[in-house]
Amino acid sequence: MARVGGRNTVFAWFVGIVCAAIVVTIAVIAAPLFPAATTWFTAAAVEVQRFIDPDSVPAADAEPDPTPTADAGATVQCRDLYDEAVWTALRLADGSALVTSTEAPTTSASALADALQPEVTLTCAWTSEAGTISTTLARVPTDAGAVARASLPGSGFTCEDDAPLVRCTRTDGALVETIEADGGRWLSTSRQGWDIATYEERVSRHAWAIEG
Question: How is domain 72-211 classified at the CATH fold level?
Answer without folding.
Answer: Protein Transport Mog1p; Chain A (3.40.1000)
